[in-house]
Design goal:
single chain, elongated, alpha/beta, binds adenosine-5'-diphosphate, binds magnesium ion, about 290 residues
Amino acid sequence: MIIAEIKGLQKNYKSTPALKNVTMELNSGEVLGFIGPNGAGKSTTIRILLGIIKSSGGTAKIFGKDVWKDSIEIHKQLAYVPGDVNLWPNLTGGEIIDLFMRLQGTKNNGRRDELIQKFQLDPKKKARTYSKGNRQKVALIAALASNAELYIFDEPTSGLDPLMEAVFQEEVEKLKGQGKSILLSSHILSEVERLCDRVAIIRQGEVIETGTLEELRHLTRYQYRITTKENPVGLKQVSGVHDLVINGNQAVFQADSDRIDAILEAIVPYHVVKLASVPPTLEALFMRHYTGK
Ligand SMILES: Nc1ncnc2c1ncn2[C@@H]1O[C@H](COP(=O)(O)OP(=O)(O)O)[C@@H](O)[C@H]1O
Ligand SMILES: [Mg+2]
């Protein structure tokens, strides 16, 4: 079942085309990573999905409903954390969490208190005294304590320290275990690698690639590290070998996946002692898209 369906979405801010063509789907029970550099259009897309701003073109549906016209209906089954969390300065964190939860239509105080403790938030302080990280915690606790079908997080851990980031990741894994659907925008690739079933990569207002991490990895090259008995100089002449670095009897290189057979044949005469292959990191994939390498 498709939870969110976005087709050819566009948004112009006066003369600035922020979104040119955002097309992606979120399936039921999956965590979709929405990744791209600053200014790519992640928050704009999410604001349109939340019904906060109106798109300039294309369509976006959640639960089969129009995100602009049916936003009230949609929000009954939706919990979200925006990129910049703004809070009422004179209310305490605890009061705001309760308010958010009431707006969302959920009341689970046990869960709320557990999360307050896990995220080490002091709920008695007025929101005006909170740091960015603490404001994010308030929104995160309210969202995570809500019983929704779809959770949307816009760079939710950008103000959190690594320990709290780990708490967030644990909680997302729990939601995933319960079969909830999650859209997670992030530029922390390790977070995306750990949590996401699929990713959509956005660049300059356009989704340029979607797929599972495995599928995306097939588009690029594995890295090989070999140790041989003799210096494997011959590798320099083998086609399909890239970025070769030979250091004594060790060689590190990237290999085209359709040339592995020939490459291994070329290595064998040097007597292989050790061989390891490493899949490309999401970071390497990402860099390829941005530098055009
Ligand atoms: N309210 C706004 N008015 C004008 N331009 C905006 C506004 N919000 C975002 N933009 C522009 O739209 C583009 C996409 O921004 P944004 O969606 O915030 O990207 P991201 O969340 O991926 O960093 C950027 O060029 C940004 O400067
Ligand atoms: Mg943003």
